[in-house]
Amino acid sequence: MTKLFQTHRADLASLAAEDRRRTLAPRTGVDFASNDYLALAGSYALNEALARGLQRGLPAGSGGSRLLRGNHEEHEALEAHAARHYGSEAALFFPTGFAANAALFATLPQRPDLIVHDELIHASAHDGMKLGRADRIAVRHNDPQAFDDAIADWRRAGGTGTPWIAVESLYSMDGDRAPLADLAAIADRHDAVLIVDEAHATGVYGPAGQGLAHALAPRDNLITLHTCGKALGCEGALLCGPAVVRDFIVNRGRPFIFSTAPSPLIASLVRQALEIVANEPERAARLHDLVRHAEKRLAALGLPASGSQILPVLIGDNARTMRIAGALQADGFDIRGIRPPTVPQGTARLRIAITLNVGTREIDAMTESLSAAMAAA
Predict the structure, then answer these.
(1) Where are the alpha helices (DSSP H) in 157-281?
(2) How many Cα atoms are found within 13 Å in the side-chain-facing hemisphere of 315?
(3) What CA–CA distance (Å, rounded) separates 201 from 207?
(4) How far apart are CA 118 and CA 194, in angstroms?
(5) Exposed/middle/buried for 310, CB within 10 Å: 0-12, 13-18, 19+?
(6) What are the extents of the domains in the chain?
(7) Which residues are CB-neighbours of 52 under 8 A, at least 6 positions away?
(8) Do residues 288 and 271 lie in contact, with contact meaning Cβ atoms separated by under 8 Å?
(9) What gap in Å lies between CA 249 and CA 289, rounded to an integer?
């Protein structure tokens, strides 16, 4: 056997031995795995908007970066609409949430600064911080005092730059919410910037789906990230905040400057999705009703509620987690097992997502299957 890739093969073998090796699986069964919370991804409304965009001659590709010929009027229209929608001074459109977080954390915090982030923040934020120049420290999950103490300790040790507080408003694997009001007060007290990743709250919470940070705006020390591939049913991400943030990333953000611009056709779809969410609040209301129904069914099994559409079922052991997930999939329910390093060691879990792609009947059947699978595993 060739010596090439021996290290990679050994690493894959070690992952398999720990029941952590990932594989790509088809999308089959009833949807309890996606982030398509409002069932917009395959909706008639967005398909019609796509057809209208094609009829208007919108290009599928941009042909270049935004700073070359890739900047299209649809990008500009979306960003203006998003700034109004989210109550920010400006917005900037990225092809993915990962790209937006990478650009944000690699570009905005400077060498004398400090990033204090929740220990459970998205992997894309971690990768962005690694590309940047500022020091960073992780603090206990959802503990405002830990954020306050970290900044105070840094100041006492001679820190002179700007502190940046980075959190998710709704955590993707636990489904719990950040104490945003407390964190905003800490940011004000320390002259810090608060960064709120609204990925899993966008479209689902707040007036017109504006997210959980909507009550904090407008303020000049708040930056929010709204991904478009979850409740909005499209793809991409919108970074919202002061105009200087947009301008600085356009000038200094290498992940933005040297990336091909997102599709103008997709930009037009995202704008349509924002209008649908704002004009049809009944979608989010139906989702919240389904979440309450699911929580009752899980409570009957002795499983705690998260208070959101993300319902984690902690198992702990990797192999048992995957056995239960496999049994649910065999019963026709698309539920995936989540293992380290996506979640901390010893907290392997099922991640059950409630979306408008299911109804109460499917939830009832799923929880019955879950009860049987957990008993058998």
Answers:
(1) 180-189, 243-252, 254-257, 264-279
(2) 25
(3) 11
(4) 12
(5) buried
(6) 27-40+281-376, 58-279
(7) none
(8) no
(9) 40
The Cα 303–Cα 83 span in angstroms is 40
User: 58-279 belongs to which CATH class?
Assistant: alpha beta
298 with 367: CB under 8 angstroms?
A: yes
For the cut 80, the answer to whether the pLDDT of residue 298 exceeds it is yes
Closest CA to 151 of 161, 142, 127, 208: 161
User: Strand (E) positions, the chain?
Assistant: 30-31, 90-94, 114-118, 135-139, 163-168, 193-197, 222-227, 237-241, 310-316, 333-334, 336-338, 348-353
Residue 2 pLDDT: 73
What is the predicted pLDDT for the residue at 108?
Answer: 98
Domain 27-40+281-376, CATH number (from 2.60.40.420, 3.90.1150.10, 3.30.479.30, 2.60.120.10) = 3.90.1150.10
Rg of the chain over Cα atoms, rounded to whole angstroms, equals 21
- Tokens 């303020």 correspond to 219
Tens-digit pLDDT profile for residues 146-196: 999 999 999 999 999 999 999 999 999 999 999 999 999 999 999 999 999
